[in-house]
Amino acid sequence: MRARMDLTGRTFSRWTVLEESAETNSGRHWLCRCSCGTVKVVLQNSLTRGKSTSCGCYNLEQLQSRKADLTGRTFGRLTAVEELPTRRHTYIEWRCQCRCGNETIVTSHDLLCGNIKSCGCLNAELRKKRIAKVRQGLKKNKVENVVVSQLTQKLSKTSKTGVKGVNPCKQANGSVMYSARIGFKGKNHHLGFYHSVAEAEAARKRAEKALYEPYIQKLAERKKTKN
């Protein structure tokens, strides 16, 4: 039988084991004294595996040692104005002035790590630029108010037939027919029901040729002329 481990008198980081405490379902516990003087019961596994190194004083000392005066320092668009007495998840909070004129409260951690660089105006501007870029791209691909790039989109990964616009449709008698559809200028056109995927696909191709192809050709000709 394996001998029970005796930790009495042993030191684990800032903990010194005084005596064994009550044993619970979570394991053996030991009464320990921290180097700062605090006495506390600690789980054996936490001691031997280094999960607990102090009563919490070590983390507090580390936090205080990292405390820096950020007054007047600039982080992106933010300038730290004053340290606040409040804390967020143990991090110091700072009142900051944004370049746009707004004020915001940011933790020292987010400032120093570059997680937050403005009051939110920077993200808003970047979002507007992205939207404008998308709209510009759509405009380049438009022919008579039809966005040609949308006509040639790839097949959806959720397709059950492997063919755009073709889906299985179970009938009342239990048989399966295949529905062919095509979207154009904001409307969804039903092309009919077919006994096979091949027949439905052929109907879809005919519709694409009649509705899509003229616009695809016009865009190709326009790009060719510009080049």
Describe it for me?
With 227 residues, the chain is of the alpha+beta class. It has 3 domains: 11-62, no CATH class; 66-122, no CATH class; 142-226, no CATH class. 32% of the residues lie in helices and 31% in strands. It contains 7 helices and 13 strands. A 4-stranded antiparallel β-sheet has the order 1-2-3-4. A 4-stranded antiparallel β-sheet has the order 5-6-7-8. Strand 12 (176-184) and strand 13 form a beta hairpin.
How would you concisely characterize the structure shown here?
Helices cover 32% and strands 31% of the residues. It is an alpha+beta fold and 227 residues long. The strands form 4 sheets. A 4-stranded antiparallel beta sheet has the order 1-2-3-4.
- Average pLDDT, to the nearest integer? 87
Strand runs, count? 13
The main pleated sheet reads as:
4 strands, antiparallel
SSE-based structural type? alpha+beta
Rg from C-alpha positions?
34 Å
**Number of structural units classed as domains:** 3
Tally of contiguous helical segments: 7
Classify the beta-strand content into a percent band.
Answer: 25-35%
Q: What is the straight-line distance between the termini?
A: 86 Å
Pick out the low-confidence regions.
none
Strand order of the largest sheet: 1-2-3-4
Q: What is the H-and-E element order?
A: EEEEHHEEEEHHEEHEEEHH
Q: How much helicity do the residues have?
A: 25-40%
Shape summary: elongated
